[in-house]
């Protein structure tokens, strides 16, 4: 199985894209992972929409907006919108503490690290 992160940007337009992915693909969406981390003493979150694998091609997409949303005591408006859309669509939400992507030499290594964490917690399927 191929499991791959598809990175969206950090702006509102990208968040709206993620919202539409949640609303219009709720049958394919498996769960929403909210990844919490700290970058330069600043807490941020990365929402990641985990899709079910495709019937053809054995592909599992994970859409992510990486480290662009502030993790505040009172959740930011962007995070509220995303979690609300997931809840309304019946998509389970999980929260995980992870390392920041800057710890890894390349973004692809960071994504492989996250795939390992998601597999270990059984939020995505193991390789078959």
Automatic annotation (TrEMBL):
<dbReference type="Pfam" id="PF23648">
    <property type="entry name" value="DUF7147"/>
</dbReference>
<protein>
    <submittedName>
        <fullName>Methylthioribose kinase</fullName>
    </submittedName>
</protein>
<dbReference type="InterPro" id="IPR055571">
    <property type="entry name" value="DUF7147"/>
</dbReference>
<keyword id="KW-0808">Transferase</keyword>
<keyword id="KW-0418">Kinase</keyword>
<feature type="domain" description="DUF7147">
    <location>
        <begin position="1"/>
        <end position="124"/>
    </location>
</feature>
<dbReference type="GO" id="GO:0016301">
    <property type="term" value="F:kinase activity"/>
</dbReference>
